[in-house]
Known about the structure:
Helix content: 25-40%
Distance between the termini: 25 Å
Number of helices: 5
Structural class: mainly alpha
Shape: globular
Number of strands: 2
Strand order of the largest sheet: 1-2
Amino acid sequence: MTLVNAYGLPYIETPEMTYLPNNNETGHPYLETATLAGFELIFRRLQKIDGDICPMYRVCKDGRFSEESNVDELCGKEQWKKDCECLMVRALKYYKLKDKEFVL
């Protein structure tokens, strides 16, 4: 069970994609859902639950979020150095962890 599911927030995750529904008023994903999903991504990565690879790697590698895939060598061991607009990078920016030095 994930944190997002435990709180019953609108979030859909399958092996092929992750979907954060948009707030009708802002046109952006619900902040509560996005921040909690982002926190869980960071936690999974720092705990190495999925190894050194970003927990979203399986979705991003196929370019499911955009026409072009944002996957590169930084998805391996240094996600915090990426500069794309993926969910992991957005979460790192939100929690002010972007470009920090991590000792794992």
